[in-house]
Amino acid sequence: MSRIEVREDRCKGCLLCATVCPVEIIAQSERFNAQGYKVIEVRDMDSCTGCASCARMCPDMCITVYKTAKAPKE
Amino acid sequence: MQAAEKLVFKTPDVIIDRPTHYCPGCQHGTAHRIVGEVIDELGLADKTIAVASIGCSVFLYNYLNVDAVEAPHGRAPAVATGVKRARPDRTVFTYQGDGDLASIGMAEIMHAANRGERITVIFVNNTVYGMTGGQMAPTTMIGQATTTCPGGRCAEREGLPIKMAEIIGMLGGVVFCERVAVNSVKNIARAKKAVRKAFECQEQGLGFSFVEFLATCPTNWKMSPVDANKRIADELIPYFPLGTIVDRTGGGEDK
Ligand SMILES: Cc1ncc(C[n+]2csc(CCOP(=O)(O)OP(=O)(O)O)c2C)c(N)n1
Ligand code: SF4
Ligand code: SF4
Ligand code: SF4
Ligand SMILES: [Mg+2]
After folding, report:
1. Percent of chain B with pLDDT over 70
2. Would you say residue A71 lies in a domain?
3. A21, A58, B27, B83: least surrounded by Cβ within 10 Å?
4. What's the number of domains chain A is made of?
5. CATH label of the domain that carries residue B47
6. Which residues lie near ion ligand 5 (Cβ < 5 Å)?
7. Residue A58: inside a domain, yes or no?
């Protein structure tokens, strides 16, 4: 299972990451961070492909991406 | 056995771990990161000197962990000329906005490019004076409303938006010149390749290199970050086409 880590304290809620996720698992949450921005959340991390599109699109360098190769291919 | 997890994307090491002062969705951050990735990958952090300019990116030195000089408005290419001539062993780049480079700094950029100074220029064109509250820039699009052309820029009154990359590409000392955007994952990959080439061209002592980034200023465009990003593809790229304008590095062809 690939996954992303989001630094919520850095997120400005711009949603650019959400527009490029090929599996559309990123959405706005109901939470605000200390800066007052409504941060994102990942709805279904199991579907993450580890493509890093979201991280490349993020202007605020909030996202770290970990990729796990599918078990049979290992 | 559990499949091994691999770190595939992280913030470049040369980027200082600090929140930026940029507005949500502002693509100065994306341009900073791409420059940081290239500095990391080419191992240039210890020998790079950034010449920052006046505009929203004025605090560049807070975000990139390299030596830096702050230039007066528009004068970054002149300051970088001095820095590079005094320390030719260093990698010297300017980072300038469109108000800075294409308006008050037009003379400095033209002559630095024409002289073929061995510097790299990162030019962030967001079609507006961002920092000062959204006045018209030489790059403002026809019809785009700003505080100094509230009815929209008019070609007859204010002229057409200046295409800097094309103009710079015509000058003799230019070895590499490309226009890029960061509105899609594909364009971000191309932008990084161009910045890498621009820095390599300096490392090889070939001459002047220039990369124009089309970027958003959601705040002064009065658009959401997502809509502002769409505007890059819908309005800006058709007028400011992406691609290599000059490549005399030997690794590619002129257009
Ligand atoms: C000599 C001088 N004239 C004018 C200004 C005011 N000023 C500060 S930033 C700026 C324009 C910035 O626009 P741009 O270069 O496009 O940068 P952006 O903020 O859009 O990234 C101006 C006119 C100044 N600081 N110094
Ligand atoms: S890494 Fe790819 S699949 Fe995973 S959340 Fe980011 S964009 Fe979506
Ligand atoms: S692109 Fe970055 S700042 Fe914008 S919503 Fe996504 S994680 Fe937050
Ligand atoms: S005013 Fe525009 S250029 Fe300046 S930080 Fe905000 S969005 Fe970015
Ligand atoms: Mg600008």
Report:
1. 97
2. no
3. A21
4. 1
5. 3.40.50.970
6. B 97-99, 126, 130
7. no
Report yes or no: B10 and A62 within 8 Å, Cβ to Cβ.
no
Q: How far is CA B53 from CA A39, A49, B73, B139, in A?
A: 31, 39, 6, 17
When divided into structural domains, chain B yields a total of 1
What are B27-72's pLDDT values in tens digits?
999 999 999 999 999 999 999 999 999 999 999 999 999 999 999 9
Q: Which domain holds residue A30?
A: 3-52
Question: Who lines ligand 4 at CB under 6 A?
Answer: B 22-23, 26, 28, 56, 126, 130-131, 217-220
Residue A73 located in a structural domain:
no
pLDDT in tens, A14-61: 999 999 999 999 999 999 999 999 999 999 999 999 999 999 999 999
ipTM of the complex: 0.95
Name the residue range of residue B172's domain. 28-247
In this complex, the residue of B1, B10, B27 whose CB is nearest that of residue A59 is B27
